[in-house]
Amino acid sequence: QVQLVESGGGLVQPGGSLRLSCAASGIILSRSNMGWYRQAPGKQRELVAVIARAGSINYADAVKGRFTISRDNAKNTMYLQMNSLKPEDTAVYYCYAKNTYEVEGYWGQGTQVTVSS
């Protein structure tokens, strides 16, 4: 059974930083494609950053230069370092992972990030 558990969300002031973690079990992140998505109230879920099995990384234009996605293979955990946070970054953040041989991937339960003064 695959489980993805996010943590690290919270309330932060504009300009602040947060680091999200996604701890995985039942799936080996180093052998999967994975990423972070977010969904703001009234909006569709959108891609934030993805890291492929081979290690290539892509970011949404809105977060380039501010967010960094990474993974720790030994801990089977993925991270999203978020700096220079803006109110428009407020959303529920979800981690996602998919084995390359499967059609469907797996989602975490989400963690709330609120950027407000």
Topology:
Layout: E1 3-7, E2 10-12, E3 18-25, E4 32-39, E5 46-51, E6 57-59, E7 67-72, E8 77-82, E9 91-99, E10 106-107, E11 111-115
Parallel strand pairs: 2-11
Antiparallel strand pairs: 1-3, 3-8, 4-5, 4-9, 5-6, 7-8, 9-10, 9-11
The radius of gyration over CA amounts to 13 Å
Query: Per DSSP, what share of the residues sits in E-state strands of 2 or more residues?
Result: over 45%
Binned, the helix content reads under 10%
Mean pLDDT: 96
Tally of individual helices: 0
Oligomer: single chain
- Sketch the topology as an H/E string, one letter per element: EEEEEEEEEEE
Tell me the structural class: mainly beta
Tell me about the largest β-sheet. Answer: 7 strands, mixed
Low-confidence stretches: none
**Beta-strand segment tally:** 11
- How far apart the termini lie comes to 40 Å
Tell me, briefly, the overall form. globular
